[in-house]
Amino acid sequence: MRKKLLMVIPNLGLGGAQRVFHDHSVELSKYYGITEAVFNLDLENLYPSGNPLESLAVVGGGGPVRKVANFFKRVSQLKQLKKRLKTDICISHLEGADYVNLLSKGQEKIILLIHGSKSHDRNISGPTGWLRKSVLMPLLYKRADRIVCVSRDIIPEMVEDYGVERSKLSAINNSFEVESVWEKAQEPLPPSMQSVYDAAPVLVTSGRLATQKNQQPLLDIFAGLLHKQIAKLVFIGDGELRNQLVAHARHLGLRVYEAWADEPLTTESDVYFVGLQHNPFQFIRPATAFVFPSAWEGFPLALGEAMTCGVPVVSTDCPTGPREMLAPQSEIPTHPIKTAEWAAYGVLMPMLTDAATAATDQQTWIQTLQALLQDESRRKQLGEAARRRSDDFTHAVTFQRWRKLIDEVLAE
Fold it and tell me: What SUPFAM superfamilies does the entry give (predicted)?
């Protein structure tokens, strides 16, 4: 009899955690009986796995009293689902699911998967953020049988900030469909977009247009770079900051193309917002470099996929993920870096979140990008190194470690 594994996430829809959830469901179903569970089906399942999907049928929203009532209803519903399925082990993705998983605990084992830094997440703020960081996580997380972090650099904060026992913690990186990404990356660009790439060196970035991804300073950097040499900047993705970023680009005097504006695509623009793409890798592989300005991360899929495409990558040394991916033999610096660090598998750069040093940090980025764009040999070396490094993040490597961990927990 295969052991019964229940996987829980608050919602479906578009997001890095949802993609990871899908990958786990597909890969772990090779060894265990998988059932997926979500709080409700308000959002479309954009990453269907083919495994059974259960909804707790509890909506979100409402005032504080309604939210508390819904929370405990979810706990009750998940507890019943675990009993009905005779669950052996329950793995939760994202913090909201973690709380519900822990409070509904019965005889089953529990593993939490931490997708990103908690201590550096600027979305965890205000009174609710204080409650989560100071009460809920320290009180509840220690009840888990195991906690898996997607980056090694999340482990210290779980110990020091939330009181989790070190023995319960392990790091298993996110994985990527390396062969599939590489295959899709070979698809040629549409002729009109290829003309843009032929017109000048292209910097490309990919990700949700959101606070975490911190793309606005990248526009300032790019505007400064244009004073030194011609280039293009391509944004792949969409999000709540779309209008703000477009407006900022125009404020800087940059010529902007917006895919959603139904305007002709020409080589005359400086910045190209191409929106969500079915195959983003065809835009990344032919780029001159991939730039990644995030304020915080977990173990970023977009950065790993760019490495898989064999493109030189330039990333903030943000918590957490990029340092582990680009300079795996190095330790977390005691102070944020203020100069470019040319690492084994890419370039680590100063963060772009400190207003006091913003001008200096942006100037460092401009100088580094200019140096990279003018050094074809170095770009080739970094791109090839990044491609090799991506082989460490295959599904085969990652899920061998997951299977070992799950079997250990089940045997306890």
Answer: UDP-Glycosyltransferase/glycogen phosphorylase
